[in-house]
Amino acid sequence: MFPEPTRDEMAFLFQLCRANKWSSVLRYVRENPFFAITPMTMDNNIATTIVHQAITSKGEASLRERVILAILERTPHASAMKNGYGSLPLHVISQRNTTKMKANIKERIIRKLVEVHPKALTTEGGVGKRTPLHIIFTGTKLQRHRYMHWK
Q: Does the model's pTM come out above 0.90?
């Protein structure tokens, strides 16, 4: 059995995420999968997870992808963890302005998130209580076209 991470360990892991030390983060998660499902506290006192941090980081996208996919393989429950804003990882990655990664990497992560937690697509979350599908289509030409057509 794996020990439950301490608050200090999670604070240290948060700092590794912030420093874009994704290889180190991955090593810790492989040693103890509970790191992947234990919330961390950001500088603003809002809860987050390693997956949320890997999605929003500006570090090397391929390294972040490796961490996210490894976590989802070993601890799929990490996809159902909400951050302090009430957002699942799928909510966060669905936002166009929060991720710095190429479309193909983003697509692989989204596919994996949906594969391990299909209900995430229709789960309300975040400040606006929107689903990831609402977020994806907000502000798109398709949405504006439908709105104009319905008027």
A: no
